[in-house]
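stage 2 :: seqdesign
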């Protein structure tokens, strides 16, 4: 029998009909062998000193203000969420690229997390169609490079500040296939809309096959009365870029009038 320390790589094979992006092995390592050093577990140590807590609050405040000043004039956005791991030859990469072009054609700004994969594809589509392209990047223990199709960018340290910015400036949300991060963004946005903390902006879940089991779970939740059956109408599940964009256009044109902000010289806004 193999000892625990002899096991280095465990391959997990999922019985899927096709590969979405690419296969990545799970690596088991000893603490001394970490490639990505863990951050200090500051949230698990209990209360910090008042000085530390004030400093943390001040750093978050500064990050929020920086985000407001950077993104205040980018115009109305449509945010595209999705995996950072999809390559250029992937179907969903090309679809996200089409979404970027369609968003630019509507006169909206395409906003993403600023990284590679689906994010790059959506920014690229907007850039190629002469539209505005924005990336809200995140500092990770490993480097996430900003993709080259972003015109306006900002890098955040805290995920919750980043998500606040990506939701704050958007009139619609397109959820492409992705992993944990995409699910986090999808369900947080959906919860804000469901609880009416956020206006009922369109949410599109793209990829019927990819999200088949997730959608069945959501339907099961409705059948068990843990969510309302009306909540299912908050999300459009589709495989069609045309259907998705028509859904977004119809809702926005029926409920909102686009208004661009004026710059105030006395706030040093350029």
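stage 2 :: out
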């Amino acid at each position: 029998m193999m000892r625990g320390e002899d096991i280095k790589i465990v391959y997990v094979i999922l019985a899927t009909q096709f590969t979405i992006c690419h296969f990545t092995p799970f690596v088991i390592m000893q603490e001394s062998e970490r490639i990505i050093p863990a951050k200090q577990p500051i949230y698990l140590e209990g209360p910090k000193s008042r000085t530390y807590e004030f400093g943390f609050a001040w750093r978050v405040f500064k990050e929020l203000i920086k985000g407001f000043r950077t993104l205040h004039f980018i115009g109305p956005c449509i945010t595209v969420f999705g995996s950072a791991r999809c390559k250029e030859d992937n179907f969903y990469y090309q679809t996200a690229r089409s979404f970027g072009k369609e968003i630019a054609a509507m006169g909206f700004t395409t906003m993403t997390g600023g990284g590679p994969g689906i994010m790059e594809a959506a920014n690229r589509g907007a850039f190629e169609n002469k539209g505005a392209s924005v990336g809200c990047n995140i500092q990770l223990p490993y480097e996430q490079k900003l993709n080259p199709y972003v015109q306006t960018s900002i890098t955040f340290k805290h995920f919750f500040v980043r998500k606040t910015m990506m939701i704050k400036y958007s009139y619609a949300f397109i959820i492409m296939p992705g992993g944990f991060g995409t699910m986090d963004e999808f369900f947080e946005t959906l919860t804000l809309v469901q609880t009416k903390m956020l206006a009922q902006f369109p949410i599109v879940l793209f990829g019927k096959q990819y999200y088949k089991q997730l959608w069945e779970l959501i339907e099961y939740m409705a059948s068990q009365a843990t969510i309302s059956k009306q909540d299912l109408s908050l999300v459009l599940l589709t495989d069609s870029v045309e259907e998705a964009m028509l859904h977004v256009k119809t809702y926005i044109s029926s409920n909102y009038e686009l208004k661009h902000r004026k710059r105030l010289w006395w706030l040093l806004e350029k």
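stage 3 :: structure notes
- Residues 219 and 232 are 8 Å apart (CA to CA).
- Residues 50-71 form the longest helix (22 residues).
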